[in-house]
TrEMBL record:
Pfam families in the cross-refs: SBP_bac_3 (PF00497)
Range of residues in the leader sequence: 1-24
Record's protein name: Amino acid ABC transporter substrate-binding protein
Keywords of this entry: Signal
Domain of life: Bacteria
Keyword Signal in record: yes
SMART domains, per database record: PBPb (SM00062), PBPe (SM00079)
Gene source species: Methylobacterium nonmethylotrophicum
Domain Solute-binding protein family 3/N-terminal, first and last residues per copy: 27-252
Keyword check for Oxidoreductase: no
Domain Ionotropic glutamate receptor C-terminal: 27-252
Length: 257
């Protein structure tokens, strides 16, 4: 009987010990945007945010031992929400740029690309640079790294700024603006889905702003950043990151080392 009691006690200790990691697991609030497919978007079937960057941070969480709670936010509000501690992490199509690095810290690069140019299908000109659209009104999304270069170029009559990439694509589609610049994978994915049948992505265009998407945290969250970087490195080594990119139609070859 004593041996049975000791065995039962040992089993309870083992069970309690195995439960500790789950109980101790922290939840990280992740800011992502409801627009920006394939990086982040609202899946209307599940009413949840899905996409590349949601899959990436979720996979990193599994490696690092934290759960992920995704919070839908507009792109332009992400950094303010992070610094105000309304969220703990930004995982969206956000470029690592020097101005942003003055405010928040970033992980190692997740994916690298440049801006794309869209015009109506009826416009067959082989645009290659800003200068080819001199004097025109163009669009870009607020808060993106593309707005300032467009304005500073002095090539355009006006640079209209939109809340979402869908809004700017809609205005090009309807002819309200001549052209628009945005994240090339987002533009390509939307056109592939047939959401904007009157648009084409200009293949001849050479991007000016080439950057890498990273995961953002507050500057003083060094321990969290270290966990994210370690988890991201494991995803790259195992091939999991490449599988996530491929799932959403992005070429693994564009993934930085």
């Amino acid at each position: 009987m004593k041996r049975l009691m000791r065995a039962a006690g040992a089993a309870l200790v083992l069970l309690a010990g195995s439960a500790l990691p789950a109980l101790a697991q922290s939840t990280v609030r992740v800011g992502s945007t409801p627009t920006g497919i394939p990086f982040t978007f609202l899946d209307t079937k599940t009413n949840t945010i899905q996409g590349v960057m949601v899959d990436v941070i979720t996979a990193i969480g599994k490696e690092a031992g934290f759960a992920v709670q995704v919070e839908p936010l507009q792109f332009s509000t992400l950094i303010a929400a992070l610094t105000a501690k309304k969220i703990d992490v930004i995982s969206a199509a956000m470029f690592i740029t020097p101005p942003r690095q003055e405010v928040i810290a970033f992980s190692a690069p997740v994916y690298t690309y440049g801006e794309g140019l869209i015009v109506q299908k009826s416009d067959t000109k082989a645009y290659t640079a800003f200068a080819d659209l001199k004097g025109e009104t163009v669009g870009a999304q607020v808060g993106t790294a593309f707005v300032e270069p467009l304005k500073k170029s002095g090539q355009f009559t006006d640079v209209k700024v939109y809340d979402t990439s869908s809004d700017l694509m809609r205005d090009v589609n309807s002819g309200r603006v001549k052209a628009a610049f945005a994240d090339s994978p987002i533009l390509a994915y939307n056109i592939k889905l047939g959401n904007f049948p009157n648009l084409r992505l200009v293949e001849s265009y050479k991007p000016v702003v080439i950057g890498s998407v990273g995961i953002g945290v507050r500057k003083d969250d060094t321990a969290l950043l270290a966990k994210i970087d370690a988890g991201l490195a494991k995803l790259k080594e195992s091939g999991e990151l490449a599988r996530i990119l491929e799932k959403w139609g992005l070429q693994p070859s564009a993934n930085p080392s």
